[in-house]
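>> Question from a student workshop board

For tomorrow's exercise we were told to take the sequence and the ligand below, predict the bound structure, and bring the output to class. My setup keeps failing. Could a helper post the expected result so I can at least see what it should look like? The ligand is pyridoxal-5'-phosphate.
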Amino acid sequence: MLYHSTRNKSLSVPAAQAIAQGIAADGGLFVPECIPEMTAADFNALKNLPYAERAARIFALYLTDFTAEELRECTKNAYESGSFETPRVQEISTLADGTMLLELWHGPTCAFKDMALQILPHFLTKSIKKSGIDREVVILTATSGDTGKAALAGFQDVKGTKIMVFYPEDGVSSMQKRQMQTQEGENVRVCAVKGNFDDCQNGVKAIFTDPAMQEVLADNRMQFSSANSINWGRLVPQIVYYVSAYVTMLEQGILKEGQRFNLTVPTGNFGNILAAWYAKQMGVPIQHLVCASNVNNVLTEFIETGVYDRNRTFHATVSPSMDILISSNLERLLYHMTHEDDAQIREWFDALKTDGKYEVPIEIA
Ligand SMILES: *Cc1c(COP(=O)(O)O)cnc(C)c1O
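>> Workshop helper replied:
Here is what the output should look like for this input. Compare the format with yours to find the bug.
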């Protein structure tokens, strides 16, 4: 399977390169050329398997340039090395009759982001080798709180990598700040930014796509990559837990085969809910995807009106991971919804950059 840039469909790279690079040189995000489908038999075949085994089989559908052994090694390191407090990795509990909770917080930093960030470093080091690059990976990450500590923990002392996390000085909780500032490891750095998460994310994107910076890195045998959900290597592990949750619900008799269910996902950078959307396209019988926002409801408004407008007051809330006005992964969804119209994506995202606003036909929103 090859990956295209959302801003240039004719660019085609294998998964390893998409993961190693993090973001396309044109500023677009890497997207799979097609979405693999799973049948009822495929879901049944995942029953009663450990999470790490399920994950390896789902990854094999997307990361076709990795061998089965390589994928299993990655999932073993991430999910079977004792860093998750529950052997099942994820748990499903009942909140009320007919309302289930997918518990994704059993990783080392208690953030659901551990689900992806415990495996991303392993994908990355393998991807770099596969791409024939003999360079150190330098991870730059913008965080509104949870990503930072989970990324630092995932990359701590992973050979061949360095990580620097940028967080808004007043935009993370005091616990998150302390978790980041006290992170151990020879290869980790943190940096407070006077601004909000969007300033951090825009700054990181600008550094990534700056040719002069890339030259400095290349001269030092280094290369940038990203641990944010703009990296495909962050998204694909998130698809896994939705597929796995469906299989577990079948296993436990909570759902019958093919029985539809709704999913509500708190949303910031649109990565978590986009992973659920991919799972739905793959055949997980999700009826409605409910995009939950807080007062920074730029996404809710977009879905209702087709107008994406970031020109509004930014509110710092008690849910800082959702305090985001530029939801990067929406670009991937729009690319798929427009049937891969890369010229249209360029136009909208140029408009977002210059005017902070774009409008899509309501049938797409
Ligand atoms: C990261 C995060 C979100 C937002 O997820 P996205 O993938 O960025 O949409 C919401 N809530 C919490 C607690 C988070 O850590």
